Amino acid sequence: xxxxxxxxxxxxxxxxxxxxxxxxxxxxxxxxxxxxxxxxxxxxxxxxxxxxxxxxxxxxxxxxxxxxxxxxxxxxxxxxxxxxxxxxxxxxxxxxxxxxxxxxxxxxxxxxxxxxxxxxxxxxxxxxxxxxxxxxxxxxxxxxxxxxxxxxxxxxxxxxxxxxxxxxxxxxxxxxxxxxxxxxxxxxxxxxxxxxxxxxxxxxxxxxxxxxxxxxxxxxxxxxxxxxxxxxxxxxxxxxxxxxxxxxxxxxxxxxxxxxxxxxxxxxxxxxxxxxxxxxxxxxxxxxxxxxxxxxxxxxxxxxxxxxxxxxxxxxxxxxxxxxxxxxxxx
Amino acid sequence: xxxxxxxxxxxxxxxxxxxxxxxxxxxxxxxxxxxxxxxxxxxxxxxxxxxxxxxxxxxxxxxxxxxxxxxxxxxxxxxxxxxxxxxxxxxxxxxxxxxxxxxxxxxxxxxxxxxxxxxxxxxxxxxxxxxxxxxxxxxxxxxxxxxxxxxxxxxxxxxxxxxxxxxxxxxxxxxxxxxxxxxxxxxxxxxxxxxxxxxxxxxxxxxxxxxxxxxxxxxxxxxxxxxxxxxxxxxxxxxxxxxxxxxxxxxxxxxxxxxxxxxxxxxxxxxxxxxxxxxxxxxxxxxxxxxxxxxxxxxxxxxxxxxxxxxxxxxxxxxxxxxxxxxxxxx
Lengths: 331, 331
Hints:
By secondary structure, chain A is of the alpha+beta class. Chain A is built from ten helices and 14 strands.
């Protein structure tokens, strides 16, 4: 399952992963010696930081990942603004200065200058950082690829076959050799059956970010591209029973679900994503997700829809398949 | 335009939409009188703000929407931390204090106390705020609605017509009575022509979150539902010339763009969204967005595709249209 996990991880290069690792080690918190220390100097350690390059940033999430040097050592510094806490509001409102930006009718906008202690920036330093760290935090540009039915046959399918990505971990799940205790629902039918289980991204602590995966028992369906009207009973069965199982287990109505397939998928054994509507799950964007309801409808009106259509999907700059499309002059 | 703007705001409970309305009217900026003013007092206007309740917040986006009172008037205050800018890094690193939180091996975390002017909070005040404003900013659950071609005719279309949402502000743009200086590109042809201009969500300071809108000159196309193969020349023209204009103006290749329509749209005058691939723009999820390339392809193979298909989209609990679907027993 390593391949998949790695693939999954690359989807969401977050500060969360890092903070996970950092928290995991928090027990060792007080034992440090040498290096960046608890000594007073550490309060100004970043003043000697020399920025080389911004690895990635997010205007939406207010984060930035910076590569540079601390003294003669490579380092990565990660800054993330902290969420605005309800408890701080009163003090924020009384203790801050406002600069008027514009005003119109009932609307006015300001720049608010807050006391630093009410407006901290979470800072993580990785030092010395290896090449691997730097690559990990680097934003990978994606390009939208246009794949005709012909491109699939001549470029994508041979690539998938040559890579022979292992889906042994999927077979282990289907055979109950692994993760059996995580199964939420199973329809054991070999033709239309499937297993439903939580995605690893979901900690199952709240339904706000519910994320389940339905994995089909049939083993020869790689992706959307293999689907024809023959598979309608399978797809309809997943749609229907999957929604029922979510209602049963999590009391979440079908109208609160986003049910979709990925193209390209992360692994080439047909699976369907069930996520909570309103939760912006990684990969739920229109450039990669296909609503199961649309897939069913499209196959009903054209049995060969996904064999013949041009499909669009993003590929990261370091994805081998992107190289194949470039070689073929398709980008 | 109030209704339409309000509709936009309800879509993604963003501060962005609000700033949209605020910015749109920026011309009137200096004419105000009374209320929250440009006088020095405005610098401390929030010190008298009494919080009643937090309407919504986002730990991910570092935003909070607060309802309360300014004197004896109802008000909504919206705070959003600002993105971390590369240009500020050097000053941030030298001018800030760090408080060590934990340290383990090569990892250490700190709380960074930054100079207020390098760490502003964008603040928007709506005062006096009506019940409608308060409702608008309140977090709302959405439900996925299934709309058949028949449902569109019997439920959605009558609702749209009855509401008669004003698109006067769109006409103002098309007639160059407003926002003329913001136009990035125009094809003036009355049949296949359109205007391309930045969405208000985009501050145009970096292409990372590029967001442009193409608004068609034709005035009788409400949405995806009105499109038939007759409109292919229009759609292809927008796709082609829009991508060229983005390349020309922002040096961003077509393969880095996500080009799509919304259904339901925020306003019923046909428009197309151009956003940067990789930027998780609000509304780019598969449940609401339709790739223009797919729309073109679908109309090519079935001229009536969008008249006859069942379409799926989320509606907020307070959306009047959701009430209509419930009344009709369709939810």
